[in-house]
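## Example pair
The file below holds two records. Each record gives the amino-acid sequence first, followed by its structure token line.
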Amino acid sequence: MFGLFRKKKTLPTFAPLVTDMHCHLLPLVDDGSKSLEESLEVMQAMRECGFEEIRLTPHFNYPRFPNKADDIQERYKHFCAEVEANKGDRQIPRMTSVTGEYQIGDGFAEYLESGQLLTYRFADPKRCSEKGLLLIEFSLHQKRMGLEDTVFKLQMDGYDVILAHPERYPYFDSHSEVLERFKEQGVYFQTNILSFDGFYGEASQKKAFDYVENGWVEFLGTDMHNVMYAEALRHASSNRKIIQLVEKNEFENKNLVSR
């Protein structure tokens, strides 16, 4: 009888999201994790914060990170085996796929022409375009000419587009007409969780909250790179505004599946 009045157990902050769909934990392929051990330590922190699944998204950014899909997929298979053999008693999220974060810049046309872009899908096949959901990013420093044309071409070529961390681009403000046009075209936005906690500065923090308020954000991601980010995620998990944000909004993370 008295059990009816017990306080409901509080779930970890990011449990409602289920899945982190943006992280750089495949070692030594970009500016993310530098070792298996670092990845395991970071993944343990992510599980403690509530994530049950993660999808690895190494950079495809020529010439800085000239990754190739076939090589990344092979590295991912090897990494999964290493994690299983070395995780010990750590509680870590399930790794369910490797996709990619593609920068729109020099070399992107070659990736597109190859037809081997690594994408996500929605669990409901009726919601997906033919080639799946492609995670893209822009330069963090200056706006490149032709961004809108490139995004439109991707959509015409059969991709759904997710724009990574729009709050981090200094050339977009809280009421950007370019971003508004992207939303009208059906582009999805993924905001970095750490932006809401001020990790990237006050300007990004304000825009992150504004974009959610605008109804522009469908996905949240950690953009996890290393142990410093893991500690920042732990800090963010106790931020009351972030807790309320996750509780009050229905994000799409949990509706993604592997291709």
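Second record, same layout:
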Amino acid sequence: MTVNITNRQDVEAVIREQVVSTIFQDAPKQSVFMGLARKLPNMTSKQTRIRVLDFLPTAYWVNGDTGMKQTTRQAWDDVYLTAGELAVIAPIPEAVLDDAEFDIMGEIIPRVNEAIGQRVDSAIIFGANRPAEWQNDIITLARQAGNNVADTQNKDLYDKLLGEGGVFNKVEEDGYMVNGCLASLGMRAKLRGIRAADGSLIFKSDMQGPTQYALDGAPMYFPTNGSYDKSVAQMVAGDFKQAVYAIRQDITVKILDQGVIQDPITKEIVYNLAQQDMIALRVVFRMGWALPNPATRIDENRVGCPFAYLEPLTPHTAQTVTFTVKDGSSGDAKPVKGARLDVNGAKLVTDESGTAVFYLRDGRYPVKATKKGYRSVTDDIYVTGAAVTKDIVLVSTETSNAPHTKE
């Protein structure tokens, strides 16, 4: 006779649908960044391109009734969101599933969401374990824009956050309004302790509400998923809607009952699923993000940043990377002033000596140098525990018709 059973494939189908739905719904809640940033439509491929304004048009006064009207141009730049992959495997002994008096999957899924949120936040904000295909993290971008505020002893905390030259003012000087702040839990005690000259608590009534902290009207969040690195920044503030992210659609969820699980470093076998009567829930999550930073009337060169941060007492250090841009159209190789350098999303303009200085962690960074009237140059820079100097030669479009893409 025919025997019908609920096999593992049937169970996997149900669990797969449940877990995928939960990740889509709960990952933004577990990730503070994904809850604050602007979500774009789900990605349909590994890379998504968005266009941002790169060059603003200019209007001119017309002299007299017969004056000549002048022309202007407007240009756009490509910004790419590339999907980085997060994966997690949760091994479960079958005996535990058989004997459990509660929903094992219901206990695991929130932890999977928490792990995804923690990795997303720490990579985007602090650059921890950042996928190589992603642009620089928010702290690095803010640092390049000069939006880091030192925790000096001669200024009180109120001035460092809200005063002239403070964290909020840094964001505002670049043409943005702060709509969110992130800080470690330890910052709450510092904020509660700020007092006026008469000893009264400044933030007693207007900062701490029944459900949420707010600073100058901007909500504050204190991540508890382990993502916040207080050794890098005491507080991060900015216009989070300027940051965008998209989730790749091909999330895969699979229940494994065969094979082995190895330690990724030592390659030693940790679990043998078949031999140890175990199953493993494997979840793969892919997403990309970007900080487009379009040109504005306040920041036409796109060298500003909609984020700023308060440094710890001992500032986090990075390696100094000095670029010198020279004119290769003639034999004297004069320095090029006003060339824009884009180092994986961080932008600076060269000074009169053709120099721009970046502060970068160890790693490989794509570099693009551009200036009107010159052919753009793309290259890579490698930072390995020491200061780096790099010369870039730009060639005038009038002196060379050959493509020039790399030095």
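Notes on the second record: The chain has three domains: 8-54+75-131+245-290, 149-240+294-301+304-310, 319-394. The helical segments are 8-30, 32-36, 94-99, 104-126, 138-144, 157-162, 167-173, 186-192.
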